[in-house]
Amino acid sequence: MKNWIIVLFLLITTSFPLSAQYKKIGGVNLASAEFGPQPESGIPALKRIQANWIALTPFAYMDSKTDPVIHYRTERNWWADIPENMVSVVQDARKYGFKLMLKPHFWVEGSGWAGTLTFEEEGWRTWEKNYEQFIMEQAQFAEDHKIEMFCFATELKSAVKNRPEFFTRIIRKIRSVYSGKLLYAANWDDYMRIPFWDQLDYIGVDAYFPVTETVTPSVDEVKTIWIDFANQLRDFSYRKRKQIIFTEYGYRSIDKPVWKQWEIEWVSDSLNVNLQAQVNGYEGLFQAVWDELWFAGGFLWKWYPEKVHYTGLKANSDYTPQDKPAEKTIAKWYGKIYNQTSTGSNKQSGK
């Protein structure tokens, strides 16, 4: 038993050599401006929640999960999806002292999620060619604008499973042009099966774990159940000797917000708005993970630069915490970044 304790201590204290100077990431996934330049891209408002990082989230499009062609720079793109326009958002972010992650996404017509792409061999080759062209343009943009992190893919579950060699090759190619920190955003139920974590700087997890079906869960209920997920993430982090970033996390302001969030992605107006449930979801999550050494921080989903997207009933039931009570909860925890010099403890979650 004594030997096991010594081994565990050495593993924890040597896993993250830069942790003594590390500051948590208190980030947001910033939606692209849809209609054109916004007054400073809505970025100054992020100071209300004490954020210090912004993830830029340009989208490319696919006509279906069986059509391998990737469309970009089309009429479907929002204004700030396009690199030439995204430059102004980068400039605004730097003006206010934010660090940046570039995190491109795919939108699949008819389903939204790109995690179930299905092609024959020729289709996969077409998709790979399209993907490489798209992502290398994004990587070069990230390098040219000194963007600190590049998340080169998000929740491409079936693509990673079917084409692991392609991703290993594309990571090497990205490294040849991009000098910042590189990561991948794995779905919450898939992070343990990603074969290329050793090639990346962080483990990225989109942390939409199904916690509880309670309509308005209490903080203690969310925290208690989240601790089980946190312990699994902690153990995985130490095995891989890499910190974990929640590349996406967050809860809608609705009934049952911490349950199976993917089942209600297409529903908004018909759901009951529940602002307290959103607050309790965030508070319970933060209590479970924020002070853990394995947890490098995260990017909440999401924040809009245009007011039209976060006003009215639909927005009130959406993920954004803008102008909702959850802002104060987030600000309390993100504010710890500026009040503490350490990353947290080496303790096990829940102990």
UniProtKB/TrEMBL annotation:
Question: Superkingdom of the source?
Answer: Bacteria
**Pfam family for this entry, one:** GH113
The record's annotation in InterPro entries points to:
GH, GH113
SUPFAM superfamilies membership: (Trans)glycosidases (SSF51445)
Task: Provide the leader sequence positions.
Answer: none
This chain's protein is named Glycoside hydrolase
Species this protein is from = Wandonia haliotis
Please name the taxonomic classification of the source. Answer: Bacteria, Pseudomonadati, Bacteroidota, Flavobacteriia, Flavobacteriales
